[in-house]
Amino acid sequence: MSLLRINDLKVHFPIRRGALVDRTVGHVYAVDGVSLEIERGTTYGLVGESGCGKTTLGRAVLRLVDITSGEVFFDGRDLASLDGESMRRERRNLQMVFQDPLGSLNPRQDIGSLLLEGLQTHGIGGPAEEDMPAGRGARRRAVLEDQRRRVVDALERVGLSAKALTRYPHEFSGGQRQRIGIARALVLEPDLIICDEPVSALDVSIQAQVLNLLESLQSELGLTYLVIAHDLAVVRHVSDVVGVMYLGALVEEASSDDLYRTPLHPYTRSLMSAVPVPDPEVEDTRERILLSGDLPSPANPPAGCRFHTRCPWRQQDRCATERPVLREVGGSGHRVACHHAERILSGEIGPRDAGAVGAGAE
Amino acid sequence: MTTTPSSQNLPGDPGTAVPAEAGGDGRTPLLGRRAAKVDRLAELMGERADDGHGAGVWRTAFRRLRRSPMAISGAVIVALFLLVALFAPLIAPYSATSQAWGNEVFPNQNVFVGPRAENWLGLDNLGRDQFSRMVVGARQTLLVGVVATLVGFCAGALLGGSAGAAAVLGGRRGAWYDNAVMRVIDMMLALPTLLLAVTVAALVGPSLTTVMLAVGIAQVPIFARLLRGAMISQGSRDYVLAARALGVRKRRIALAHILPNSLGPVIVQSTLTLATAIIDAAALSYLGLGNPDPSFPEWGTMLADAQRFLSSAPQLAVYPALAIIVTALGFTLLGEAMREALDPKLRK
Amino acid sequence: MSNGTPLLAVEELSVVFGGRGSDEVRAVDGVSFTLNEGKVTGLVGESGCGKSVTSLALMGLLPSRGVRIGGSAVMRLPEGETDLLRLPARRMRDLRGSQLAMIFQDPLSSLNPVVPIGVQVTEILRRHRRMGGSAAAKEAAVLLDRVGIPDPTRRLREYPHQLSGGMRQRALIAMAVACRPRVMIADEPTTALDVTIQAQILELLKELVTEEGTALLMITHDLGVVAGLCDDINVLYAGRAVESAPRGPLFAEPAHPYTIGLLGSVPRLDAPRGEPLTPIRGSVNDNIAWTDGCAFAPRCDRYAAECLEGPPPLVPAGDGHTHRCVDPAEEETE
């Protein structure tokens, strides 16, 4: 059984107007019907451009934003139906690593109290019941002792020493701060860690350190990751399965290598051709599919296939009228939401000149 | 969180710009500048904390303060005032209430005693030592200023803090509570401070407590608005989200995470409020709403009393008036310098 | 296309901040490179390497107080050669926008939010090209069309916030090319944009450079962008160029350990899944002063005692390839 199963998840943010009484004048369809499964011990990478709803999806799993409808099964329990307090307790099993390592650490908390906070909130730690000393004071000390040990252990796992405990976030470099953020998640011994753009705020040379750290933690502790990022190269590097999001919906899902070898969805293809590769020879020779125009507003998504306004492969039939569902194409779990995936793959339909689409997209 | 997609990963489509910050801020011209100034401070402190130098902001601000002549002169005035007020009984050479030289002053015959060796500032209309009265009056002024500011701070922080916490963490009901509180605050803000204070004083009757209460209540909306703004700005930071993701209880998030990071602008405002409170208190005393005991010195009352002899003994009015102005100036200079030190955009 | 002499020759540029009590910071320390007609020169490095300061120094946009600028930046103008670093402020202002243009990272904050795009574009045309009102408006529409903004006449009336990020950057590029500058400086022009939009903008820049013969200085942290766009590349570390080469040799045979480290740190889209990354140790702050030795030594895997015997000199390695390492990598086998 998969560790996390998301079923037709929708998160719509109401747009409110009005001075005294708020009226709802519309919705931002941030996540609009996403279903996916993550197997225990694997990494699921979610990639997409800003505004595609990937961050909202990650937050919705943790119920940090209100879920409009759908189910989120974690280890067999539906998180979407839990009440506030049960969800709060459940969060020790699902943790999050944030994009901005500095912003996600309280500037007034030293590292020790930052890392202890989770343990104390959930009452984790302390010797086994039979080893528990008598007396409240001794008991408290024993628990704190054990929590401290766990904190130091987590710090060492991410490559920092116990000396960091009494220092404050601003005294560390960007990479170290992100390690602290990872340690904060790690200390609760969660099953699933949601990494929201874990490296995009870091310097290039530091990114690799953090990515390697995430990988080694996974193999040591058997963690499951949901990695959310805009950088396809990063996502592909760390993930077993990659899901591509566009305007609130999953347009393609495949194993990392499969996706790179045979991208089926036109959006995936253009995304892939747009990612720069640090190799002049590759850069000079590969084909580029330039998309015209911009992302439509998620408050007013286009009818039919959401990508049809920018799609170089757009056809007259169905694209503008019928919303394609995610379906398996070509076996091995490769799923794609495109009416014409097979015909595009076989080369029956070719891309139109991107420049010609320019005016139509606006 | 629930009503604002602005914290989400969405493009800045103007059509979706939802009342995140407009969610209850009076944009009424009536409140205009004062509200804008208060909000700017709140927003700024939010920005500063974003740099992540929790302690660093204050440290660099302090370093900047030490170089600012405005801050230094403000600090000197405030320090002098505090010293005089605290050690008033030791400094005052004579009793402030005894009419020891009563036989030398005849107000109805326009006979007053000006500065001389034994009475540095001369005698007042009842033959009391003016210098001693000024010194003891400083103590009263400080008491009124501090208590009034404390009243405003506590009540304002409670209202604004609860509204801010409710807005950030309370969901729909929280947003409703926040809205309700802020409408009341906006109404209070729309009333001129002095009018509000006079109303309170008129309701409770004249006494020193009345003055402190009245001036304090008049400051409530400013503190409330400031703290709420700062808390909402802090509430959208990632570390609050991180705390929620960690499973920390909402009460603890509000009290241990958001509140400490939001207090900066409120503390700065306290300094500025002290100046306003001193002037307001003097004004209320002047209007006869202060301490009914005329023998007890208070700068506002002294000013009111001196009015009758303005033509024959103007110095009696000048001393308390100068004292009020200089003290208020001191606090204002210090407060403004602090605000400037914390505000990168005002800096030259 | 190029006739040999560079359009802009930067020699030993150095920028020192501070002094007067506080510590001096050498943000840029003896950087030299040239910009040629129709060519793109890249400055690559991480935060704090001095790449942005370099561009501001060339544009004359650094504050005059508390900053010392050394070296020279000779630009070839129709009326003769001029050293940009020694130009009076007035002349520099005339030059900016006409012969010398800059594109910034954040298009929103570089546009005036309360003035329509059209006014901002025509203002430049009227000021530098002395055009009349209607001619300028017509030219502005042509410019927006040139940079791929659909429906330019409508867009001209809109305010910056009404445009998407990509459109704003295009508008900014339109303003930069309005007076057909000889030299353009782009400081992380695509960092704030999505990948698909980035591809559009890079394509546009490439087009402008080849068609107009402009010389472009591309400043970025993204090696992928550099590989696709730049002809000559300078890798900066702690204010100095540690390696300079045409793009072919740089990516095929990187010599400096820092360059090699950078290349090993980025996951490549075309690498098979699971291929390990080889990060650089420590962080950008872990460096020593160049005067004491190689600033990169504390993070370098091949660090040896000789690395600390004074500043490493710039060593030529053939084909316009130079580096600053006493023990460079031999023919890296990929």
UniProtKB/TrEMBL annotation, chain A:
Keyword Transport set for record: yes
The keyword ATP-binding belongs to this UniProt entry's keyword annotation: yes
UniProt keyword terms in alphabetical order: ATP-binding, Nucleotide-binding, Transport
GO molecular function: ATP binding; ATP hydrolysis activity
Record GO biological process: peptide transport; transmembrane transport
Residue ranges of every copy of the ABC transporter domain listed in the record: 4-272
Pfam families registered for this protein in UniProt: ABC_tran, oligo_HPY
InterPro entries found in the cross-reference section: AAA+_ATPase, ABC_transp_ATP-bind, ABC_transporter-like_ATP-bd, ABC_transporter-like_CS, Oligopep_ABC_C, P-loop_NTPase
Protein family: Belongs to the ABC transporter superfamily.
NCBIfam families tied to this protein: oligo_HPY
Protein name per the record: Peptide/nickel transport system ATP-binding protein
Organism (species): Nocardiopsis algeriensis
Species lineage: Bacteria, Bacillati, Actinomycetota, Actinomycetes, Streptosporangiales
TrEMBL record, chain B:
Compartments where found: Cell membrane
PROSITE patterns named in the record: ABC_TM1 (PS50928)
SUPFAM superfamilies given in the database record: MetI-like
Keyword Isomerase attributed: no
Ranges of compositional bias, category Polar residues: 1-10
Matches recorded under Gene3D superfamilies: MetI-like
Cellular-component GO terms for this entry: plasma membrane
All copies of domain ABC transmembrane type-1, residue ranges: 138-335
Membrane-spanning intervals of the chain: 71-92, 142-169, 181-204, 210-227, 266-289, 317-338
Superkingdom of the organism of origin: Bacteria
Protein name: Peptide/nickel transport system permease protein
Organism: Nocardiopsis algeriensis
Taxonomic classification: Bacteria, Bacillati, Actinomycetota, Actinomycetes, Streptosporangiales
Automatic annotation (TrEMBL), chain C:
Intracellular or extracellular location(s): Cell membrane
PROSITE patterns found in the cross-reference section: ABC_TRANSPORTER_1, ABC_TRANSPORTER_2
Membrane topology: Peripheral membrane protein
Keyword terms, alphabetized: ATP-binding, Cell membrane, Membrane, Nucleotide-binding, Transport
GO molecular function, one term: ATP binding
Stretches assigned to the ABC transporter domain: 10-263
Pfam families attached to this UniProt entry: ABC_tran (PF00005), oligo_HPY (PF08352)
Biological process, per Gene Ontology: peptide transport
A single cellular component GO annotation: plasma membrane
Gene3D superfamilies referenced in this protein's UniProt entry, alphabetically: P-loop containing nucleotide triphosphate hydrolases
InterPro entries xref list: AAA+_ATPase (IPR003593), ABC_Ni/Peptide_Import (IPR050388), ABC_transporter-like_ATP-bd (IPR003439), ABC_transporter-like_CS (IPR017871), Oligopep_ABC_C (IPR013563), P-loop_NTPase (IPR027417)
This protein's record includes keyword Transport: yes
Database matches in PANTHER family: DIPEPTIDE TRANSPORT ATP-BINDING PROTEIN DPPD, OLIGOPEPTIDE TRANSPORT ATP-BINDING PROTEIN APPD
Family affiliation: Belongs to the ABC transporter superfamily.
Name of protein: Peptide/nickel transport system ATP-binding protein
